[in-house]
Amino acid sequence: MPLTLMSGCATGIGAATRQALEAAGHQIIGIDIRDAEIVADLSTSAGRQQALHEALARCGGRLDGLVLCAGLGPQTPDVGKVVSVNYFGAVELLDGLLPALQRGTAPAAVVISSVASAHLLWDKNPLAQALEGGDEAQAQAIVRGAGEHGGNLAYAGSKNALTVAVRKRAGSWGQAGVRLNTVAPGATETPLLQAGLQDPRFGESIAKFVPPLGRRAEPAEMASVITFLMGSGASYVHGAQICIDGGIDAQMRPTQF
Ligand code: NAI
User: Fold this and answer.
1) Which end of the chain has fewer beta carbons closer than 10 Å to its terminal beta carbon, N or C?
2) What Gene3D superfamilies would the database entry show (predicted)?
3) What pLDDT sits at residue 209?
């Protein structure tokens, strides 16, 4: 039975993915700010260290899988927390857990990015240097100082940097024998999306964000692709970002891929 660690498994895409992975035979250790085996706050360095410490103790230093779903949306009141959870809450777990994954059987990891990762490209991402350099305080200061644009900047900037961080690790993780991919969901019916729709600053633009398939996704439609990427059917998929977005990325950026 594969032993898989997950973050953000309490609600939404993470909860659906936990259910799908368990149905596929995975034993799950969850990390979340609530309702998980390991309760930890990934928005702080201390919380991330606690999560790592408890995770390594629980798995005995050996893991077969890792799925990182924890994230905050652009409507989060403290936009500084968005960069902390979305970027550092994923990258620090990736780096801290690679040795345990190397000891696993057919190990694989999937990180949940977003279609928003392509809305702000790396060479124009004002957060790129601070995030890649590990300067959390500087990244928080940039988004907190960005006024009404802070939420979108924190969300798109952190997701762009997260996808880049995964792609930059494709070489070393591949050599370590651990497959690593991202998925880029489009609008998915979860508490995060509902909070965005109810926010007067973001509601209208999110509601207008209708993909070619003409509807928003259900969390289970993310979970099924993530479960595939974690399994032997995806044994040669590595360093990829899979859009699960009803076609919106292709519609918005047909010539860029
Ligand atoms: P959600 O709000 O239902 O789930 C997020 C999970 O992260 C929750 O279980 C929450 O408790 C956990 N979390 C939040 N802050 C945390 C913290 N400080 N420490 C530990 N855990 C924390 O949202 P959803 O939509 O399921 O999001 C999952 C991932 O999918 C996120 O990374 C999000 O950015 C991404 N995504 C979601 C889209 C959508 O339309 N719902 C679209 C694109 C990406």
Assistant:
1) N
2) NAD(P)-binding Rossmann-like Domain
3) 84
